[in-house]
Amino acid sequence: MPENDVLARLVEVIRERQKGADPAASYVAGLMAKGDDAILKKVGEEAAEVLIAAKNGAPGPLSNEVADLWFHTLVLLVHKGLSLEDVTDVLAQRFGLSGLAEKAARNH
């Protein structure tokens, strides 16, 4: 299955859980019911675990931790009303640009 199909299907499941799942029976619904702070904490924890796995050098744990980070990032995007396409559109716009030039052109 192509990577985007997996991510798109996962976003669909997350949206379904957000809309109608019982927070006591669904991890996603429970996390979303706790709000921004709980979701942001999980994204931060998973990002730290990616760093540790990368530092340790074994590819299996790194793949697992990146999967966890992507999952929780998708939960955050859905919680904030954003789509996978919102992110992939930004990435597509950056294609062909020097990373240094793109970063310098950002409006922060």
By DSSP (H or I, 4+ residues per run), the number of helices equals: 6
Bin the helical content.
Answer: over 70%
Shape-level CATH architecture: Orthogonal Bundle
Write the element-wise H/E pattern from the N-terminal end onward.
HHHHHH
Gyration radius over CA? 16 Å
Oligomeric state of the chains present here? single chain
**Low-confidence blocks of residues:** none
Please state the average pLDDT score: 91
Biggest sheet statistics: none
Structural class, please? mainly alpha
Identify the CATH homologous superfamily: MazG-like
Q: What can you see in these coordinates?
A:
The protein has helices at 3-20, 27-34, 36-56, 59-79, 84-94, 99-105. It is mainly α and 108 residues long. The protein has one domain (3-83): Helix Hairpins, CATH 1.10.287.1080. Helix 1 packs across helix 4 and helix 3 packs antiparallel against helix 4. It is globular, with a radius of gyration of 16 Å.
Index terms:
single chain; 108 residues; mainly alpha; Helix Hairpins; 80% helix
Element layout with pairings:
Elements lengths: L2 H18 L6 H8 L1 H21 L2 H21 L4 H11 L4 H7 L3
What's this entry about, in short?
This protein is an all-alpha fold and 108 residues long. It contains six helices and no strands. α1 packs across α4 and α3 (36-56) packs antiparallel against α4.
